[in-house]
Design a protein that fits this description.
Helices cover 37% and strands 16% of the residues. It is α/β, with parallel strands linked by helices and 359 residues long. The protein has a single domain (6-356), classed as Aldolase class I (TIM Barrel). The strands form three sheets. An eight-stranded parallel sheet has the order 3-14-13-10-9-8-7-4. A hairpin with a 4-residue loop joins strand 5 (115-118) and strand 6 (123-126). Helix 5 (135-145) packs parallel to helix 6, helix 8 crosses helix 9 and helix 10 (301-309) crosses helix 12. The radius of gyration is 19 Å and the shape is globular. Bound molecules: flavin mononucleotide. Flavin mononucleotide (FMN) binds at residues 76-78, 81, 100-101, 115, 124, 126, 128, 157, 190, 193, 225, 254-255, 267-268, 271, 295-298, 317-320.
Length: 359
């Protein structure tokens, strides 16, 4: 997937790589819980991680409404659903973080097992079903944290409870926005997870217009995360509508719905082609007028390069952290630098949208 890099060859890197490999011997959700537990206890703070600064030259980018970022690689939703360890993720070098999905009331999610690794494919399937501490409890954690958003902005991904009907769903998103408002640099209206019945049915102009009208004052904070399973035509019509409604931007994409080898949402490398196609479809409609964050199958710096070239302002990762461990961001930034050097780009801002430029 990537060439060996100085970061990935150091002793510390090899030890962390070994730790990641050992975690992968455990069942997937247990490994995830152990990883979060270690991060919560600030295990990374005691390690002499390499400095990120030498990798940041020319990597700065901006997400409208969110801020200036040191580089384009952020944390995707679902890894730290309840804000247990944002400091740990910032320490891994991620330039912006998304917590959630958070539901209004606490709920346990689906029965276990509900998370599966597909090691050979660098993929994951989950049917977590929004296990959430609930908005009030997470708000209390965030109040105690007093996150500054500088230099690492923190966004909050919102969903509905399992037993909330689609007719009442607007109330769940509103409750999330109101309860968590003081703590979020941005919100994500999640209408794309495949494991909550009726959720994807909310990915339509009518529902999202209601959200936009009700939260006019907060629209510059609101992003929408879409799924990769819509046909091109309806996807593009929805993107156009969301742009006109005034949402700040889109996250493309959530997981791809699968029934085999497990029922749930597919992440990681097997998602890359579909998620990239959605990015291209969206860019075809909105160009530079609506900011896009890419998510889905971004495991290497080469992948980051390709999404930025296709018009993404920044990217989010999840599976990459599972398969590459705590130094994933470092390795990906080195690879991204190599990709830019190969093509003679010094600044990431010049890479943005370059895929569509005709010479
Ligand atoms: C176990 C797991 C839980 C997830 N939970 C959420 C979630 O709660 N909300 C959400 O919007 N996306 C969730 N996602 C989707 C990720 O944020 C991301 O969009 C997806 O995994 C694709 O990125 P990747 O290929 O880098 O993993 C989850 C993904 C996984 C693997």
């Amino acid at each position: 997937m990537s060439l060996p890099s100085p970061v990935s060859q150091s002793f510390l890197a090899r030890s962390l790589h070994l730790g990641t490999a050992i975690l992968r011997l455990l069942p997937a959700e247990l490994a995830h819980d152990v990883g979060l537990w270690l991060l919560e206890r600030q295990i990374l703070n005691s390690l002499p991680l390499p400095r990120l600064e030498p990798l940041l030259d020319g990597m700065a980018c901006t997400l409208p409404g969110i801020g200036d970022l040191a580089h384009p690689i952020g944390l995707g939703a679902g890894f730290d659903k309840n804000a247990r360890a944002p400091q740990g993720f910032a320490r891994m070098g991620l330039s912006f973080l998304e917590i959630g999905t958070i539901t209004p009331r606490p709920q346990p999610g689906n029965p276990k097992p509900r998370l599966f690794r597909l090691d050979d494919q660098l993929g994951l399937i989950n049917r977590m079903g929004f296990n959430s501490y609930g908005a009030v409890n997470v708000a209390e954690r965030l109040r105690r944290l007093q996150w500054s958003h500088t230099p690492v902005p923190l966004g909050i991904n919102l969903g509905k409870n399992k037993d909330t009907t689609t007719e009442a769903a607007i109330e769940d998103y509103s409750y999330g926005i109101e309860t968590l408002g003081p703590y979020a640099k941005y919100f994500v209206i999640n209408v794309s997870s495949p494991n909550t019945e009726g959720l994807r049915g909310l990915a339509n102009e009518g529902f999202l217009k209601e959200v936009a009208l009700r939260h006019r004052a907060d629209l510059s904070k609101l992003w929408v995360k879409l799924d990769p399973d819509m046909p091109k035509k309806s996807f593009q019509l929805l993107v156009e509508a969301l742009s006109k409604l005034g949402f700040q931007g889109l996250i493309l994409t959530n997981t791809h719905r699968v029934d085999s080898p497990q029922k749930g949402g597919m992440s990681g490398h097997p998602l890359a082609i579909q998620a990239t196609a959605c990015l291209e479809w969206a860019y075809e409609v909105v160009g530079e007028s609506l900011p896009l964050i890419a998510s889905g199958g971004i495991l290497s710096g080469q992948d980051v390069y390709q999404r930025i070239a296709r018009g993404a302002s920044a990217v989010q990762i999840y599976s990459s952290l599972v398969y590459r461990g705590p130094l994933a961001v470092y390795a990906m930034l080195e690879e991204l630098r190599n990709e830019m050097d190969l093509r003679g780009y010094k600044f990431l801002s010049d890479v943005k949208g370059s895929y569509y430029k005709k010479d």
